[in-house]
Amino acid sequence: MASMEALFTTLKTLRLQGSIFSRAQLQAPWGVHTLGSERAIFHVVTQGQAWLRPKGQAPIPLQTGDLAVMMQGQEHIISDAQAGPARHITRFQAPVGDDGLPCLSNNADGEQTALLCGTLTFDPGAAPFIARHLPGVLHAASGSTAPWLDTSLRMLAEDVGGQTQGSAGQAIAGRLAEVLFIQVLRRMAAQDSPPPWLQALSDPQIGRALALLHQSPQNAWTAQTLAARAGMSRSSFFQRFQALLGETPTAYLTRWRMTVACGAMQDPGAGLFEVAQAVGYASEAAFSRAFKREMGQPPSQWRAALG
């Protein structure tokens, strides 16, 4: 499985935050259309079954215990059937429960499905990194779940269902949503054909090197020093790294440094020279050149766009 240490380090830097925005208790037939969001959207099926129908992609069957994440917040339909009509989410009844969350409902009398729906947000500068290394839709099927997922889903359902109320309940639900995402990535890494980035994190030697890069981007890492820390020859390390990730260690390190820098620049008190040093550049000018090559604009312009 993917290194928990490496995943925690990575997602902490990307400033992962989770939240729950609604529950749903729907009787067949039903179909909910969501136009999409700038945030990643996830659905957990806590009872029954559903079909997730991302725009432009094949429908994905979901069973009780399944969790699906649309990393780019894609427009989608979630419904009881593989095809058929759907109403926009705003056209459903959504009374607010004791937990402070709206609960979507309808007037049908068929088989019931219960859902928890939420969002995941990341640092503004993390989008290119995430889009490069993770597929647009992540799906953890109930058939591959371990006790951690069953327990987390149960806790999530109970807390959002009103056992823990108010802001405290929302905080707990948000943390559980974050933990679910981390664990889903770990489970996907254990599948037969995991995404290359998760496969690399799971590799005992390449994963060790990635953890070092993620933890200390300011270090002057080279393929030689990383190979030595991974217990490999330089040539073997370079070949395996590139085979798994499709780029050189230097290119990956540069991309990660820019991602970390974007997070640091959200602090209005952080000067560009300070940010440059934090990600391994000796001067503001060298950092600015690298940032513009990677991100398409100077760091000052990127920062100003944050508002």
What key attributes describe this structure?
12 helices; six-stranded mixed sheet; 307 residues; 44% helix; single chain; Arc Repressor Mutant, subunit A; 11 strands; Jelly Rolls; alpha+beta
Strand order of the largest sheet: 9-1-10-3-6-11
Domain module count: 2
Looking at CATH, the homologous superfamily of the largest domain is Regulatory protein AraC
Fraction of helical residues: 40-55%
Oligomer: single chain
Return the CATH architecture of the largest domain.
Answer: Sandwich
Q: What integer is the average pLDDT? A: 86
CATH topology of the largest domain: Jelly Rolls
By secondary-structure content and strand pairing, the structural class works out as alpha+beta
Low-confidence stretches: none
> How many distinct helices?
12
Number of strands: 11
Sketch the topology as an H/E string, one letter per element: HEEEEEEEEEEHEHHHHHHHHHH
| N-to-C span | 40 Å
CATH class of the largest domain: Mainly Beta
Spatial shape = globular
Strand % is 15-25%
Largest sheet: 6 strands, mixed
Give Rg in angstroms. Answer: 21 Å
Tell me what you see in this structure:
The structure is a single chain. The chain has helices spanning 4-13, 127-133, 147-163, 166-189, 196-202, 206-215, 223-230, 234-245, 249-264, 272-278, 284-295, 299-304; strands at 17-27, 31-34, 40-47, 49-54, 60-63, 67-70, 76-79, 87-88, 103-105, 112-121, 137-140. The mean pLDDT is 86. Helix content is 44%, strand content 20%. The strands form 2 sheets. The chain has a 6-stranded mixed β-sheet. The protein contains 12 helices and 11 strands. The chain has 2 domains: 4-192, Sandwich (Jelly Rolls), CATH 2.60.120; 203-304, Arc Repressor Mutant, subunit A, CATH 1.10.10. The protein is of the alpha+beta class. Helix 6 (206-215) crosses helix 7 (223-230).
